[in-house]
Amino acid sequence: MTETKSPADREEAPAGDDDPKPGADVSFPYDRMTVEQFRKRFPRARWSDARKAWFVPGRTAPRRIGRWLAELEAEADAHADAKGRDAFAFDPIDSPYLQLGKAGFRIRTPYSKTVVDELREVPFSRWDGDLRLWHVPFRSYEDLRRRWPDIEAAARRNEPEERRRRAEERKGTEQEMRSKLRSAERKRHRYPLPGDDLPPLGRPVAISYGIVIFTYITGELADPDIVADVYPGVTEDHVWGYWRAPTLEELVRTWPAKTPPVQGAEWWLPTIEELRPARRAARSREARRREKAPVI
């Protein structure tokens, strides 16, 4: 439903009137019950074929229409919540990670990036930093139900016992050695860049690590014999660039690229699909930093 400008702001007057009258237009998808509610609430309203909208006369019309639309939206939310509650009762999610609350579902899992990404895609979901859990209203049950297999699988993979078991299995293996090398290399905040195609300094760009900002390019050549296990595609023409994580403000100011990166690119301007999760991660980092900051 959308509210439009008053006829007083238009050159066109309502049919049958010589001069524009104060009032406001409102349009919404046709529904018999909604129209009946509207006519009962606004008995002086008249339909305009020219504007394909209802004209409500009166100087207070915009405010009265706004209240009615808000009430209608609240009724729709209540109906959607009731529908979601019924769907849960008929086909419930049985999981130790989900509890039933008064206004919806409370979800608490071990930390997992997959869980966070999935729950962020559920409409109206929100993170409660005090209780350390997610709230999802009943109206979003169908979306939650569709994503739940991936959420639960990721949560189980990140249970402390399961992570310890996998760590024990990796001990002494080549996989563990490669993982340690990658972790140690990433902590150095450096990255090999093609010498003939260097990224701009001070601007967010995307690499295999995610979105970073390069602050300094040394000119020092990368040695493929030493770092080939971490960077398989590196050559003798690559030089080291040092990077840092971008701030939320820097990511918000970044315009997304209109085209995806070319195949085989070693750095590229981030797309909106890459910027959105990066902005969410930066927002979470800054929130955690504020929570840990000492109170003066």
UniProtKB/TrEMBL annotation:
<feature type="region of interest" description="Disordered">
    <location>
        <begin position="1"/>
        <end position="28"/>
    </location>
</feature>
<feature type="compositionally biased region" description="Basic and acidic residues">
    <location>
        <begin position="156"/>
        <end position="184"/>
    </location>
</feature>
<feature type="region of interest" description="Disordered">
    <location>
        <begin position="156"/>
        <end position="186"/>
    </location>
</feature>
<feature type="compositionally biased region" description="Basic and acidic residues">
    <location>
        <begin position="1"/>
        <end position="22"/>
    </location>
</feature>
<protein>
    <recommendedName>
        <fullName>HARP domain-containing protein</fullName>
    </recommendedName>
</protein>
